[in-house]
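Blackboard transcription, Thursday session:
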Amino acid sequence: MPTSKRFPTAHLLNVNERFFLIDCGEGTQIQLRRFKFGFAKINRIFISHIHGDHLFGLFGLLSSFQLLGRKNELHIHGPGEIREMVLFYERYFGTEQSYRIKVHPLGYTREMLIFEDERMEVFSFPLKHRVPTCGFLFKEKTAELNLKKEAIDRFKPGIENIHKIKKGDDLVQSDGTIIANEQLTLPPWKPRSYAYCSDTAFDPGLSEFLQEVDLLYHESTFSKDDEDLAAKTGHSSSVQAAEIARICNARKLLLGHFSSRYKSTDGLLLEAQSIFSNSVAVNDGDVFEVERTRTENIPEE
Amino acid sequence: MPTSKRFPTAHLLNVNERFFLIDCGEGTQIQLRRFKFGFAKINRIFISHIHGDHLFGLFGLLSSFQLLGRKNELHIHGPGEIREMVLFYERYFGTEQSYRIKVHPLGYTREMLIFEDERMEVFSFPLKHRVPTCGFLFKEKTAELNLKKEAIDRFKPGIENIHKIKKGDDLVQSDGTIIANEQLTLPPWKPRSYAYCSDTAFDPGLSEFLQEVDLLYHESTFSKDDEDLAAKTGHSSSVQAAEIARICNARKLLLGHFSSRYKSTDGLLLEAQSIFSNSVAVNDGDVFEVERTRTENIPEE
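(Written on the board underneath:)
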């Protein structure tokens, strides 16, 4: 349940200025406005499962898109029931609909690639909850080599050569001299990844698919003392979330989806940090950046 | 549309500790929590029309009632489509529903008594909007005479006599002496009334039914300068709202439902006050009390 300080679940993911909304609890559009995000930029929404605290904000968002005169097609990846919800919405509230909504039903048997473009991939993977539920893994693709600006300014290769250089070729100049690729490029950025796991019971089986994830969000509904409740309701404790982060070799763990029974999340965070030190208990509006690193160290000049 | 400071529409009305929710825009349950209202006390909800900004909070509220283990039947008065919404809700989100929801469809041809108990009445009345829309008038019934505590303490009439005294009878004591009713009672409280008009185009025809209303809420979506937009969209300007208050002889006017196009509501309020001075532009969380007055002045001793 929401509290006076916490709205239900929604994450906004920015992958190189491409924006993805993950779950859409009641009030998501209100929070997006409060945190000054022009949400017309969202073209793709991922809904993990058909529980109200993860999707009751959908109708309001669809409606505001319409009031803003949205034209771009909107894609929603979610449980099959989302199609029924969208039909219901369109029937009663979308009669003047200015844009198309396309629903992509999720599968629950295994990890599946559900979206890709030239720079990234999105996978769904099954979680263990009371109803069919998916997590989502967002992964950048391996990038091309980065050009060294000063070298490009100096040797001025044409567009065609630049494409070749980015793929690793040396530059053959018009006088026949060869400039080695290493003089022209930096190693590519390491592809970054973000995994979203909500809601789920403790499931160490996730660790294989999420191995080495940079940023892991894992629900943390209960305290260690309430793990019986967690098991009964298909949720996890903060300690279990931390254990998943540990066995995944994640770089950082975000904890959320706290039960309203806890006045403070300090206790849950401490429990998690005892297992996985780089854990954070998130608050509404928090922003986390996954820093870019090179695939290899650049030797100093 | 909601803004970072204003949630969509919802009013909570307290009539002698009986609580009524009027419209239920997205985030209503969140605001009720923020303003510290234990919303399990709500047993009756009134929905004016089937536009999202007046009811997208319904699913979240129904869901939280369930999580709180609600047992009491919930009554919803609203457009017939609300029945479809409730069925949809129950099908996908209410499988473990702990309480019954009873929907009472509204009529749109004339004023109708839609609820009453021993102390109050609720009427619906048609408004002029793009879709069938009702306003609601809440009226206390004429109260009985109030007992003068000191006189009751002195003459000690039995329970049976007290009922008669409240209806105006004198008290005949066991020794045959008669105590005049005026010595035992104060004039009753004047029945108070609250009218809710949202959303509607300017409709002076409302004034007859709402004559002498104590507190009038009237939507005020636009400024006087945008009255063409108001007419086109089935809304009112603040000046038109004030004109309704004036011809109703309302005691006080509340303005709301402001278009997000206005950075401040000061201009709209000033326009309204030039027509009806006791106008207020409401903010989320504002509380207004309709003060009780006696039906007649009490002569000083």
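Lecturer's comment: Chain A is about 25% helix and 25% strand.
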